Amino acid sequence: MSISTQSIFDSIPAAVLFLDTDGYIISFNATAPRLLGYPAETLLTKCLDAF
What's the whole-model pTM score? Predict the structure, then answer.
């Protein structure tokens, strides 16, 4: 992702998650950890089913 695209992505005030085909989080914006209540490094090990 380019720097400008990443900046826009991170400025969205909602949690945005990208998932793999099994439902595991593979990427997220800067707002996601705060809104979901998980540290950023922990989110990458979570499946959408955990929420």
Answer: 0.80
